[in-house]
Amino acid sequence: MPQVTTPQLQSILDISTFVFAVAILIFVGVEAALLYAIFRFRERGDDRPAARFVSNQRLEIAWTIAPLAVLVVVFALMLGAMQRISAAPADALVVRVIGHQWWWEFRYGDVVTANELHLPVGKPALLEITSADVIHSFWVPSLAGKRDGVPTQIQRLAITPMQEGTFGGACAEFCGQEHAWMLITVVVESADQFQTWLDGQRGPATTSTSDPGAQVFLSSTCINCHTLRGTSASGTAGPDLTHFASRATLGAGVAPNDDAHRAMWIRDAGALKPGALMPPFAFSETQLADLVRYLGSLK
Question: Domains of the chain (ranges plus CATH)?
Fold first, then answer.
């Protein structure tokens, strides 16, 4: 049995267990009836006429009502489970989740980050899931069921994490070439740790724009796609990079967020993640080193 980390996951597990148990009972019952019929009415080799059955009204009513009753019960349980995994109290933490090809954007009001979702343990969160381009599907199997992200629509998913830790997920709807590398990291932490993280994410970039690496960034086409709060960079096509170095991975999980992989990503993102929309850059070795160091300071 999977480890239950949220009440929503427990609801899904409960209805799944019930449906599986009913399916087993039906299977056993049908097979038992089949074996009985095979044995009871088998050919005995004594020239007795074969048994003939014309109709049995009671039996026909029974096998009509019984499946209907099972379906009604399953339907009622399903509605209850859907309500529990979609509804959240009025004071729930609201996070807007936006799927992009091929990365995730998370908005906590005025705080914007990417690919790492932070949640406080024990507090209900309501995810408002949508998409900026094609249909995606947000799925973290250790925490809750999946929800499609559909352009122009908002799908809601409630999560109340009861255990601290880091949980992995992925896009569960084929969305293009790099669908397999559209990963999700969910960090569940104490309320104090979460508030500290959120306050830190709310602030602008902490490094000086006079830094040589900042000058490379701000004088290149990086600013057309990325936002760096506290600077003139305000692009929205790619992830917000204000606190880029605080994330464990880059490219939505395709590589660790270290100097070597940052350099590879800047040189040619498509080499790490074929189909990535970020173009290659022909910086000099000095420019590249300055930019990698600068991005590594954005915590």
Answer: 7-86 (1.10.287.90), 93-197 (2.60.40.420), 212-296 (2.60.40.420)
